[in-house]
Amino acid sequence: MVVAIKEYLDDLVKTYEVPAFIGDDPVQFPHRYAKKEDIEIAAFIASIFAYGKREAFISKLKILFERMGNKPYEFVVNFDENSTVVDDIDYRFSVGIDLKQIIIILKNLYNEGSSLESLFAYGWEQSKDVGRMLQVVVDYFYSKVTLPVTKGFYHLLPNPSKKSACKRLNMYLRWMVRKSSVDLGIWGFMPKSELLIPLDVHVAKISRQLGLLSRKQNDYTAVIELTGQLKKLDPSDPVKYDFAMFGYGVSSSVS
Hints:
Blueprint: H1 2-16, H2 36-48, H3 54-67, H4 72-77, H5 96-111, H6 116-127, H7 130-143, H8 151-156, H9 167-177, H10 201-209, H11 220-233, H12 241-252
Helix pairs in contact: 1-12, 2-9, 6-7, 10-12
C-alpha cells in the first residue's frame, strides 16, 4: 500500500512540478527576479497574500508589484512612510494600513543590516524546529507594530501559538529552502528534510483520501501528522509532494 501511494504521488510530482505550472501560482512573483533580496521579499509578500480565490489574490498582487515598480527590494528600503501608494491595496480581511505596516517593518529590518533570511535563520538556530522558528518570526513582526493595524495584519501573519497550520509561511519556506523547477531554493540554513507541508484544503482532502491524514481539522497537529507520513515516502524531501497535490486538487476539483 505504501509503495503504491509513493508511486502515485511521485507521478503527480512529475506531472505538476514543472515550470509551466508556475504561471498560475503565486510563486510566479519571486520567479521574476534574480537578486536575492528581491526574491525573498517578493516571495514573502506573495505568500502572505495567497489565500482565498487564486485569481483574486494574484490579480491584487500584480497591482501591488506594479506599484512597487517591479523592484521590491528597492521599493521596501526606500519606502516613504508618508506615502499613500499602498493605502488602497485592500484584500479580503486586510486593508492598506496592514500592508503598509509590513512594508515598514521590512524596511527597518533591511536597513538595519538584516534580512528575511537572517530573521528566519535566527529563529531556526534557536530550536531547529519549524514551528518555533515561525513563532520567532511572527513575534518579531508583532513587536514592531507602530500603526493602528486591523485584524487583517494578524491574518496575514497568523500566530503559530494558536495552533494555526501556518500554510502560507510554510509555503514561503518551501519556496526559499527547497530547490526545484518550481521552488527557488536560495536559503541554505536548514535542510529541506525539516520543512513542513503547507496544508491547504486541497492537499488535506487528497491526503485524507489516500489515508495519509486522519485528523479532521486542518491545523498544526494535522501538519505534523501529514509531514510525518510524507517523510516515510521520502525522508530527505517530504514536501516535494505539496505542489503536485495542490495542483491535482485544483485541476480535478476533488470533493
